[in-house]
Specification:
Length: about 550
C-alpha cells in the first residue's frame, strides 16, 4: 500500500527541530521519475540560503533514510570530547530511527575537521559488513548534523570461511604483480605530507596494482590484471601530408586578437574580450546568425563562453512566464530551478568554449548537437583523422607531447570478449572518443590528458579538452631524472605494505555477494582516544627514494 504523503510530512517534521522561521521549499519523491525510493523534504532559512534541513523518508516503510543539517558552526576551539561519547550519541540517535539497530554492533568513529564521523554496521567475525547500517556525523557539541542509512540490497549475509590464507601470503601475492612505473605528478600540501606550503612537481614511482584485493579463501586477486591498469599508449606518428601546418596568418590573427584584449578586465563584459571572442567564433565556425552568446563568465585562468540557439532561447524566454504557474514550486524541478537555474540552463548551450586568458589558446570545447539524424557512417579510423586535423590546428605540437590510448591486445582481453558474447553485438557508436595522455621528458604526467570526441554521423568535433601549455613549459623546466631503480622502489614500497581483512561486496545487482578479502592498509598515525589518522602510501620518490603519503 502506498505511503500516505500527509503522514510522511508529519513524520518528517518530528525527526529534528525545525526553526519556526524556516520555510518548506521542496517536497517530492526522489530520485524523480525512475525508481523513486524516498519522499524528500527541504526547509530553508529565508534569509540564509545555505542554512537548510533535508529529511528523506522511505516511500516503502517510512523509515528515515537521510538527514542533513547545514548551518553555521558555533563550535568552540576547546579540546574535543572523548570519542566514546560520540559513539554513544550516534548509537542513541540510530536506535531511534533504524529498524535493525539491535544487530548493528560494529561502531567505528573518527574525529576530523571538528566533526565526528561514526559508521555503525552489522558484523560477521568481528568485521563490519558494508552496505548495512548507517553513517552518523556529529558536530563538536555532539549534535547530529548528518545521517545516512544504507538501503538493504537483499545480499545474503555471509558465514565465516572454514579456512583462509595468511596475511603474509596475501601480501606476497600483491607484490608479485606490482609494476613500479615512472610518472610525473604535482603534489599539493593540502593533499600530501610535504615540507613547505608550495606545490611540488615530482618524478615518482607509481605502484601499479599496489591496491589489488586478494580473495582471503583462494589467495588470488579478486580482479583481473587489467582492472586497475590504465590502457596502453602508442606514440603518434608525424602528421600526414594532407594535414596542413597552421598558417602564420592564423597565429598572427590570434596574437592580434590578444593584443586587443584586456585580461585584467575585472568584470566579464564583452568589452575587454571582443577581439578574442570573434577570433574563436571564426576558428570554430560558430554561426552567430544562429547562435547567441550569453554573458561571458570565467575565473582567474579561463574566459568561458556559452552559445545558445537563438530560436530556442527566444522560445524559452517566452515560455517562462507561461510555465512557471504550472510548475509545482515544491517539486524537485521547481527547487532545482530556483537554486541552480543558471547552471542548469548552461547544459542546454549549443557551444561551451573555454579560452586561456593568458595565452588565448583553446582549452575546452563542448558542442551539443540537436539529435542528428542518420546512422554512423564514419569508422574509428576516419574519426581519428578528424581529431588529428583538429589537433594540428589548435595544438600543433601534439605529436611531441601526446600519446594515443589504445585497446588491450586480444589475448589480454578474453574477459571483455566473453562479456560481449553474452550481451550480444554492441550498437554502433554515435561518437568515437580519443584519449591522449600528456608526456614530458618521456614520462607520463599523471591525470593530464587531451580528450577529443568525434561524431560518427556528422564528423564534427563534439568535445575537446586540452592541457595547459603553461603547465607543459613549467614541467619541462624541471628536467626530471630518476636516481632510484624500479627494484629499489618496489623494495621500499613493500617495506611499508601491510594487509587487513575486510568484507567486500562483489558482483553486480543480480550476482552480488559478500567476500572476505585482504586489502592493502593505510599508514597508521597519531592515536587519538581510540582513533587513528590514516594515510595512503601513494608513491615512491624517484630521486630520493622516500615514500609519499596522501592524507585521508
Amino acid at each position: 500500500m502506498p505511503m500516505d504523503m500527509t503522514a510522511l510530512r508529519t513524520a518528517a517534521r518530528k525527526i529534528t527541530f525545525i526553526p519556526e522561521h524556516y520555510r518548506l521549499v521542496m517536497e517530492d519523491n526522489t530520485p524523480k521519475g525512475f525508481n523513486e525510493r524516498a519522499r524528500t523534504f527541504i526547509w530553508e532559512d529565508p534569509q540564509l540560503k545555505d542554512h537548510k534541513i533535508e529529511v528523506s523518508l522511505s516511500l516503502k516503510t517510512g523509515q528515515l533514510m537521510r538527514l542533513e543539517i547545514e548551518q553555521e558552526s558555533h563550535e568552540s576551539m576547546e579540546e574535543a570530547v572523548a570519542i566514546e561519547q560520540a559513539k554513544k550519541a550516534a548509537k542513541a540517535f540510530m536506535s531511534k530511527f533504524h529498524p535493525d539497530y539491535k544487530v548493528l554492533t560494529s561502531l567505528h568513529a573518527e574525529f576530523k575537521r571538528n566533526r565526528y564521523d561514526v559508521e555503525i554496521r552489522a558484523e560477521v567475525g568481528g568485521l563490519p559488513l558494508p552496505n548495512t547500517g548507517c553513517e552518523v556525523r556529529l558536530d563538536q557539541n555532539l549534535n547530529v548534523v548528518r545521517y545516512q542509512a544504507d538501503e538493504y540490497t537483499g545480499v545474503e549475509l555471509p558465514g565465516w570461511p572454514s579456512e583462509i590464507v595468511t596475511p603474509e601470503a596475501a601480501k606476497e601475492r600483491i607484490i608479485q604483480d606490482i609494476h613500479m612505473g615512472l610518472i610525473i605528478t604535482t603534489l599539493y600540501p593540502s593533499v600530501y605530507e610535504l615540507e613547505g606550503n608550495e606545490e611540488q612537481h615530482r618524478l615518482v614511482y607509481e605502484p601499479a596494482q599496489g591496491r589489488r584485493k586478494i580473495d582471503a579463501v583462494t589467495g588470488e586477486p579478486l580482479f583481473a590484471l587489467q582492472h586497475d591498469l590504465l590502457p596502453p599508449t602508442v606514440p603518434i606518428p608525424p602528421a600526414h601530408d594532407e594535414i596542413q601546418q597552421p598558417s602564420k596568418e592564423t597565429e598572427g590573427a590570434l596574437l592580434e586578437a590578444m593584443a586587443h584584449s584586456n585580461p585584467e578586465t575585472e568584470n566579464m563584459s564583452l568589452d575587454g574580450y571582443t577581439s578574442l571572442i570573434r577570433f574563436w567564433e571564426a576558428q570554430l565556425g560558430i554561426d552567430t546568425a544562429r547562435y547567441v552568446l550569453d554573458r561571458p563568465r570565467g575565473d582567474e585562468e579561463n574566459l568561458i563562453l556559452y552559445y545558445f540557439e537563438k530560436n530556442l532561447a527566444n522560445n524559452e524566454a517566452g515560455a517562462d512566464q507561461e510555465s512557471c504557474p504550472t510548475t509545482d514550486p515544491l517539486s524537485v524541478d521547481g527547487y532545482m530551478e530556483r537554486r541552480w537555474g543558471d547552471a542548469l540552463r548552461n547544459f542546454d548551450a549549443a557551444y561551451m568554449v573555454h579560452i586561456d586568458k593568458s595565452t588565448g589558446h583553446l582549452e575546452r570545447l563542448h558542442y551539443k548537437q540537436r539529435s542528428p539524424e542518420g546512422e554512423a557512417v564514419l569508422t574509428r579510423e576516419q574519426c581519428w583523422r578528424v581529431a588529428e586535423r583538429f589537433l594540428q590546428r589548435f595544438f600543433p605540437e601534439y605529436a611531441a607531447y601526446l600519446q594515443l590510448e589504445v585497446e588491450w591486445d586480444e589475448e589480454e582481453s578474453e574477459a571483455d570478449q566473453e562479456l560481449e558474447e553474452e550481451q550480444g553485438a554492441a550498437e554502433p557508436r554515435k561518437r568515437e572518443n580519443f584519449h591522449l595522455p600528456l608526456f614530458v621528458d618521456q614520462y607520463r604526467v599523471r591525470t593530464e590528458r587531451v580528450h577529443i570526441s568525434v561524431s560518427t554521423i556528422t564528423g564534427e568535433v563534439l568535445i575537446y579538452r586540452s592541457v595547459s601549455k603553461e603547465r607543459i613549459l613549467e614541467l619541462e623546466a624541471c628536467r626530471f631524472e630518476s636516481m632510484v631503480s624500479p627494484e629499489e622502489a618496489l623494495a621500499r614500497y613493500a617495506d611499508h605494505l601491510e594487509v587487513s581483512l575486510r568484507w567486500f561486496i562483489d558482483g553486480d545487482d543480480n550476482t552480488s555477494c559478500y567476500k572476505l578479502i585482504y586489502d592493502p592498509v593505510y599508514k597508521r598515525r597519531a592515536e587519538l582516544e581510540g582513533t587513528t589518522e590514516e594515510h595512503i602510501l601513494e608513491f615512491i620518490d624517484a630521486v630520493n627514494g622516500e615514500p609519499v603519503w596522501m592524507k585521508m
